[in-house]
Design a protein that fits this description.
The complex is a heterotetramer, with two copies of chain A (about 325 residues) and two copies of chain C (about 325 residues).
Chain A lengths: L1 E4 H15 L3 E5 L2 H4 L1 H7 L4 E3 L4 H12 L4 E8 L7 H8 L2 H4 L9 E6 L14 H5 L5 E3 L4 H13 L4 E6 L6 E4 L12 E4 L4 E5 L3 H14 L4 E5 L2 E3 L3 H11 L2 E8 L4 H12 L9 E5 L8 H7 L3 H12 L1
Parallel strand pairs in A: 2-3, 2-4, 4-5, 5-7, 6-7, 10-11, 10-13, 13-14
Antiparallel strand pairs in A: 1-8, 6-12, 9-11
Chain C lengths: L15 H23 L13 H9 L6 E3 L5 H6 L4 H8 L32 H15 L6 E6 L6 H12 L4 E7 L2 E2 L2 E2 L9 H5 L6 E5 L3 H18 L3 E6 L17 H8 L3 H12 L4 H24 L15
Parallel strand pairs in C: 1-2, 2-3, 3-7, 6-7
Antiparallel strand pairs in C: 4-5
Helix pairs in contact in C: 1-2, 1-10, 1-11, 2-8, 4-11, 5-6
Classes of the chains: A alpha/beta (about 325), C alpha/beta (about 325).
The structure holds thiamine diphosphate (2 copies) and magnesium ion (2 copies).
One thiamine diphosphate sits at the interface of chains C and B.
Amino acid sequence: MRTITVDEAITEGLAEEMRRDPRVITFGEGVATKGYKLAQEFGSKRVRNTPLAEGIIAGTAAGAAATGLRPVIDLLFAPFLTFAMDEIVNSAGKLRYLSGGQFSFPMVTITRTGAGWGVGAQHNHNIEAWFVHTPGVKVVMPSNAADFKGLLKSAIRDDNPVMFFTDISLIYVPGEVPDGDYVVPIGKAAVKREGSDVTLISYAKTVQTCLTAADALQEQGISAEVIDLRSLKPLDEATILASVQRTGRAVVVHEAGGPCGVGAEVAAILGEKAFGSLKAPVLRITGPDVPPPASYPLEASYVPQADAVVAAVKKQFA
Amino acid sequence: MRTITVDEAITEGLAEEMRRDPRVITFGEGVATKGYKLAQEFGSKRVRNTPLAEGIIAGTAAGAAATGLRPVIDLLFAPFLTFAMDEIVNSAGKLRYLSGGQFSFPMVTITRTGAGWGVGAQHNHNIEAWFVHTPGVKVVMPSNAADFKGLLKSAIRDDNPVMFFTDISLIYVPGEVPDGDYVVPIGKAAVKREGSDVTLISYAKTVQTCLTAADALQEQGISAEVIDLRSLKPLDEATILASVQRTGRAVVVHEAGGPCGVGAEVAAILGEKAFGSLKAPVLRITGPDVPPPASYPLEASYVPQADAVVAAVKKQFA
Amino acid sequence: MTTTFETIEAPVVGETAAALESMLLIRAFEEKMAALKAANQAPSSCTSVGQEASAVGVVGALAKDDFILTNHRSAGHLLARGANPDRLMAEILGKATGYCKGKSGSLHISVKELGVLLTSTIVGGELSLVTGVGLSTAMSDSNAVVAVFFGDGAATEGIFHESVNLASVWDLPILYVCENNQWQAYVHRNETMRVDHVSEWASRYGIPTKTVDGNDVEAVRAAAEEAVEYIRKHRKPYFLETYTYRLRGHMEPDDQAYVDKNELASWKERDPIARAEERLLETSLFSAADIADVRERVARRIEAAAEFALSSPYPSFDELLTDVYA
Amino acid sequence: MTTTFETIEAPVVGETAAALESMLLIRAFEEKMAALKAANQAPSSCTSVGQEASAVGVVGALAKDDFILTNHRSAGHLLARGANPDRLMAEILGKATGYCKGKSGSLHISVKELGVLLTSTIVGGELSLVTGVGLSTAMSDSNAVVAVFFGDGAATEGIFHESVNLASVWDLPILYVCENNQWQAYVHRNETMRVDHVSEWASRYGIPTKTVDGNDVEAVRAAAEEAVEYIRKHRKPYFLETYTYRLRGHMEPDDQAYVDKNELASWKERDPIARAEERLLETSLFSAADIADVRERVARRIEAAAEFALSSPYPSFDELLTDVYA
Ligand SMILES: Cc1ncc(C[n+]2csc(CCOP(=O)(O)OP(=O)(O)O)c2C)c(N)n1
Ligand SMILES: Cc1ncc(C[n+]2csc(CCOP(=O)(O)OP(=O)(O)O)c2C)c(N)n1
Ligand SMILES: [Mg+2]
Ligand SMILES: [Mg+2]
């Protein structure tokens, strides 16, 4: 075990996969400048700067993926995905199906989002749920260095388009990572803390929020289990259900807005498949349904806090 | 009351609003060709063909909306929205907020989607939930001629960006419309049929599916209430909750895929706010999470059927 | 990628007679699709009637290992490449025997075994994907050319700018083929651009460009050969515009009420098939009877295709859920 | 829309001395932002150091009722337009007294009362929105011009093509101002395009284009006046490129390790402020002491702005939920 930041974990994971498989290439706006070490090791053919044009970056990735390469593209901030939706959704997500299975799209799209840098809604917009609602793609959003590295490696080895969301606030957070080559499978949630009275379900920065809340609850005699979804599509239904069937209570926590978010999906699954076990309503603690502001204190107030999670749980026990 | 098709209802609603307010203009690919009657009445300044470029169509609408016009744009099929996401989401949806309230965006974006024409997933993709998950916009998706007309008129009068989704299969369906000037308010669901044992909640083409299912259930002694959401953002929580608190059971039905769809949101709301009233799990009957195929029979099998709704309800009574 | 051509009736272009047969096959195919739609026996499709010379001339200049990307108006490109009319028509009818198992229908027909990749009906989709195919080709040791067919309308999408610019900056071996047929669905090209030739736009990216008479199959073929030679030699993009006309409507059926009658008539006089026939008859190596023979052969082929397509089964219902993930 | 300019210290450009003061104000403002960021007293921002002549020259040619759209690198345009440095700096610091109540921060500062509309930090956002402002202006009886500032990087986005093409086809009264500062964040322009001048691309849309020395404020002003006159008279778009250089990094702080030292040095020699000062001193109507005076006045103004911004309150928490819907 070594301790590295999330940023380092991503670079390491990418470099290892590029060493392992010559078909892996990476490009994007400034990718070769900022990743000059990668460029040095793998050369200017496999590590490329691009023009400032997200549509063609994503389209090029999809076309290259369908013809033998395994591109990892960096589209910088999640709102810039709005310029690449056709290529990701209509091409990478659908052309396998529409062609009757003639093509596959092993590509990874990295973007950043979430509160932390005070950059406002055109850089910070948690839209991972859009892609959960999109057929033919997979979605991951890790919470710690080990998962960032392991999930990125899985994503690169996956034969399908994978959306890889990076929570801005985690980028410089250090964490332990296993030595050697390892992967974290897409579609498997992690139980971060075991508990028996309530299940807190989350992903990305708010996993830590839930762990903090669980500490606070512990002091009040409530034992909270904390689940990190890690993969949002496919969702690890089995892990969530097993936990909630045991605890009988669930709170879903994420920074993205509520309506049709991942929390809605998790709550709907629980309402359907854990109905008999539920002792209290499944509650959602999410960011408000507004564009995230730039002003630091306002931005901070956008993010779900441990207090609110604790309060929700206590409501379930009232 | 007169009987007209949905297509005619849309054209009528638009023409009435253009007569009423000179700031209303309409443009899009072929809008002046296909709407030559509108072009004749309102002239080539207010009814325009555009180049084939969805991004600039939507951006032009947003810019014009912020500076005094009230554009109604036709982007043809919902998947083409993927070329206009920045303009709708990042500009129209966020620039009011980010500017501290300096601008408003009274614009309507019309698109078509849904099974019926066998055109495949690049023309038929029900992505209304993406916009429910988007702050700053409103979303409507009517089921019948009267609502198409009345909601379009409301949308045009609304000072916010409204996404107006038209279910392809309804376009030539006739329906009664009230005489004279009327609007259907955004944010109000309609109870299409009253019932006491279960609430079927839907929108667009599957409202009829639910009514058919309700007939079948009636024969089996189950009294189903049918709610047409009509507006997906804002959602009419009060109407849904009032009904389900009474019936104790709910099935949400839509053609869009399930994960993070409108059904998930409705189920999550019910699971939270009607928890005490629920006698059975809230179930979702949705299209499968796959790109809609072109082949007619396959496409038809994509769409939720009344049988499945009936079966879901009976499961709730088992 | 292995390329399997139909052996018996496949047009082997390379001379005008073969090109004529190929064009006639396309014309007959498209007219059959229109007739089937009119009789409610097929879904509507976008025909390439009037544009056959562009398809046949360009595809004829490509080698077996080259790649092709096309769009919603693809039957000409596919048939010129040797696609089996049976499977093509079956696909348009949504049948299990179609090239995409019926899941595509008419709008996004890919045939990987012929090198026809990633067909997209999103206007501009082909332009966004071709750079990726160009990149993988450039990074391989193949000498292949990647040809992409798109319309004048696609050229007004922003992705056109992004695609040609990237291909130029990255030296991708792409043959851009803009089929400027004067129409963008129900809008005339001159309502959407201040230039007559899309090549004027393309010329600013530092790549060679040419506009050719798209209704003259020999001229298209010659221009395409020159372009392909350039790309094979320099491994850089080339932009070729085939200036032509959409003789039928955008999508069947279409009464073309919005089309200027004089314009339509003037282009009908420049029908690429009539011109090729005249050219052949002038040589006196080819007689009217020969032409009649070809026409009959082609008609038989298309009838057989229709029979195959109409009698083919629809996909089974479990196909709804397959081919989503690899 | 009423335009309120700061009365006391507002630069009234129109002559080189006023332009110099305006440029010095921008420079001092930007350097203060960099210093505050370095001291952890402000968030990072994208400065326009080196590009002051472009902002001051173009904005000076506009009338009060004209409109401006800008982007992430907006402080120069805003200050040249007469924005209050207090409120501008407060906005960048996310304070309630800022032009957007602190919700924007540095990246999307609109000031409707000055006609600075719909600022977007999405590269290309300004290009997608300007056609709408142009359309509403064209459909009104106003004679206003709509100026849009964007970078060479924005010109590589597809929306550039769509925007300029639509403005041309629809005859919109838009002044496109491409500030070609050679950089697109961490990528040099020459990695992303085969042309040196974005005006080469723009020239293909049937509109007048010009590239001007963007570091010569008099030249920029003259070119902008010509452009504005053309637009006012013809109600059609015009494309002006100000060829300049980003002297500091993309976003503060930035060590510019990726920047070619010789290129940077050669552009530093062409600093627009030094050039304007030289020009003024040559006239002998202006002395070194005069310049020192201006510099001091500007420095005081910026110190006051910083004091205002730093001491302003943050927005109250209930602002989180306001301004979402009209
Ligand atoms: C992004 C997108 N916008 C609109 C359409 C609808 N549409 C299909 S074909 C077409 C016209 C295309 O014109 P052009 O590119 O010139 O090709 P042509 O049909 O003339 O061959 C349109 C508008 C589409 N399929 N995709
Ligand atoms: C759509 C989009 N892509 C990427 C970015 C990140 N970004 C911000 S500024 C910038 C460079 C812009 O270059 P240019 O347009 O030349 O303007 P400049 O910064 O040089 O003034 C980039 C890549 C963004 N804000 N929006
Ligand atoms: Mg065309
Ligand atoms: Mg630049």
